[in-house]
């Protein structure tokens, strides 16, 4: 608010960041707040703009984000896609000239809470090498696929197309923690679990090697084509800042495509079958989003953990004008 954002927008953005941290996604929650404020102060993020519809019909809508706050633009597009899907069963919204949307899952959970399937993705600046390259030429293009489920136990796939998200690598490097699995390459091209080596002269690794690389490229092309916006190649020409991205939001009303009870029973029976084959721990097999629900429950009970370094930065920012 002290940097010019009106009260309602400030509250919305703050709640979105806090909820991500509540769900244990610190890398895309409160941890990104200092960086967001820096982008606002340097003009990379415009705060006094609104998303603008530039093309639409009954089934789709094309939007210019006018370099506004990525969270607010993504929420607008999610709701617009749901609005179209409410009338037609499915709605597609594409967005250009937007900024970092922070956590992809935020919009999946939002849609699922309203009873809608959401498929959404974004491109990013080049931070990952395509398979067979030594240069970072593609993004890690996060994607979310959310499927509503009774009692809000939704299935929400929220992932980057790199083995670890950019924010997760940064968190591990700052905390000097080793990754659980190989997450990229060091400066000599060797696979490594050392996050600092990946950040400092190394490279992120796409999921599934050539398969993840191909998926990333296709998502990038689709986002740019459908929005009339920039590709990752374009984003990498001028800066190393996540600004001007292209995104796609597809909302689907599952009730349009069949009996809701049948759909829910199908999901329940399949998940029960998965659980029966867990090895060791009862919850060794988890469906996408189950870990989020567990962390959310724990944090609501015991409090939310925030790194002291991040909290100190926020306190310092509070004193600045």
Task: Explain what this protein looks like in three dimensions.
- This protein is α+β, with helices and mostly antiparallel strands and 321 residues long.
- The protein has a single domain (53-289), classed as Ribosomal Protein S8, Chain: A, domain 1 (2-Layer Sandwich).
- 42% of the residues lie in helices and 16% in strands.
- The chain has 11 helices and 10 strands.
- It has helices at residues 7-22, 33-41, 70-88, 105-113, 166-175, 195-199, 210-227, 232-238, 260-275, 290-302, 308-319; strands at residues 52-56, 60-64, 90-99, 117-122, 143-147, 155-159, 184-185, 191-192, 203-204, 243-252.
- A 7-stranded mixed beta sheet has the order 1-2-3-10-4-5-6, sandwiched between helices. A 3-stranded antiparallel beta sheet has the order 8-7-9.
- The chain is globular, with a radius of gyration of 20 Å.
- The N and C termini lie close together (10 Å).
- The model has no long low-confidence stretch (mean pLDDT 93).
Question: Which fold name corresponds to the CATH topology?
Answer: Ribosomal Protein S8, Chain: A, domain 1
**Which strand order do you get reading across the main beta sheet?**
1-2-3-10-4-5-6
Along the chain, the helix and strand elements come as HHEEHEHEEEHEEHEHHEHHH
**How far apart are the first and last residues' alpha carbons, in Å?**
10 Å
Q: How many β-strand stretches?
A: 10
**Structural class by secondary-structure content:** alpha+beta
Total number of domains:
1
Main sheet characteristics: 7 strands, mixed
Shape: globular
Helical element count? Answer: 11
Q: Radius of gyration in whole Å, from Cα?
A: 20 Å
CATH domain class = Alpha Beta
Task: Tell me what the CATH architecture is.
Answer: 2-Layer Sandwich
* Multimeric state: single chain
């Amino acid at each position: 608010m002290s940097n010019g954002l009106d009260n309602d927008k400030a509250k919305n953005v703050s709640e979105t960041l806090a909820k991500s941290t509540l769900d244990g996604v610190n890398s895309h929650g409160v941890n990104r707040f200092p960086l967001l404020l820096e982008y606002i102060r340097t003009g990379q993020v415009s705060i006094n703009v609104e998303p603008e519809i530039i093309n639409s019909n009954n089934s789709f809508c094309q939007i210019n984000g006018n370099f506004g706050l990525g969270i607010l633009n993504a929420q607008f597009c999610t709701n617009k896609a749901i609005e179209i899907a409410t009338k037609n069963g499915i709605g597609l919204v594409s967005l250009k000239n937007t900024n970092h949307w922070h956590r992809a899952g935020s919009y999946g959970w939002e849609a699922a809470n309203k009873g809608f399937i959401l498929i959404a993705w974004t491109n990013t600046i080049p931070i990952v090498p395509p398979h067979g390259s030594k240069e970072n030429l593609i993004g890690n293009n996060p994607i979310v696929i959310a499927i509503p489920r009774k009692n809000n136990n939704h299935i929400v796939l929220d992932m980057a197309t790199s083995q670890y998200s950019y924010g997760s690598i940064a968190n591990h490097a700052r905390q000097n923690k080793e990754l659980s699995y190989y997450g990229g390459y060091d400066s000599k091209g060797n696979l490594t679990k050392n996050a600092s080596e990946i950040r400092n002269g190394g490279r992120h690794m796409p999921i599934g090697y050539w398969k993840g690389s191909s998926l990333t490229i296709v998502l990038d092309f689709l986002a740019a084509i459908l929005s009339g916006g920039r590709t990752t190649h374009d984003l990498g020409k001028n800066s190393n800042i996540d600004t001007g991205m292209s995104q796609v939001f597809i909302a689907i009303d599952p009730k349009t495509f069949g009996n809701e009870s049948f759909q829910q029973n199908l999901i329940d029976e399949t998940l029960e079958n998965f659980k029966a084959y867990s090895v060791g721990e009862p919850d060794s097999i988890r469906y996408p989003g189950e870990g989020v629900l567990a962390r959310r429950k724990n944090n609501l009970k015991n409090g939310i953990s925030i790194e002291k370094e991040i909290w100190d930065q926020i306190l310092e920012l509070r004193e600045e004008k």
